Amino acid sequence: MALLMVDVVSTERSIFSGEARFVEVPGAQGELGVLPGHTPLLTGVRPGTVRIEAADGSETYLYIAGGFVEIQPDRVTVLADTAMRADSLDHARAERAREEAQALLEQQSGDIDYAKAQAELAEAVAQLQAIRRMRKQKEVR
User: Is the predicted pLDDT of residue 49 greater than 70, yes or no?
Assistant: First the structure.
């Protein structure tokens, strides 16, 4: 069975390094599914969940908050602004961040930075989705 070498790194450290038979990445224009032999590609990524399926079928979920992905036929490298394992995310904190960003966007005041509030909302929603996906996978097992 052909495998991919997968590396996910943030500006601070390496989050994941290993082999996989499939990788799902939140590309800037939509979800990217990567199998061995994929055409080379370099693109931006948006906040979301990276799903890595190992050769034995086990799955690893990582949260990323933007950056880039380089895809080669035998390798996937994610260079993320922020990256962490989904199981280390704090659900309550992410929910509070989502509520705060949503409240800012609902204000009709000219004193807020809408782009920043939208980015914060997108990150909080992506964290909550990563938590849900990881919990759902644990329930299936």
Answer: yes
Q: What share of the chain is helix, strand, coil (3-state, %, to 5)?
A: 35, 40, 30
DSSP assigned state of 37? T
**What number of residues does the chain have?**
141
What's 33's domain CATH number?
Answer: 2.60.15.10
Question: What pTM, to 2 d.p., does this model score?
Answer: 0.70
Do 42 and 76 lie in one domain? The reply is yes
Pick from 137, 141, 139: nearest CA to 61: 137
DSSP 47: S
Residue 101, pLDDT > 80, answer: no
CB 103 within 8 A of CB 31: no
Is there a single domain that holds both residue 54 and residue 23?
A: yes
- The 3-state secondary structure of 102-114, one letter per residue: HHHHHCCCCCCCH
Q: Quick: pLDDT tens for 82-93.
A: 888 766 666 677
120-141: pLDDT as tens digits = 777 777 777 777 777 676 665 5
- For residue 49, give its domain range: 4-88
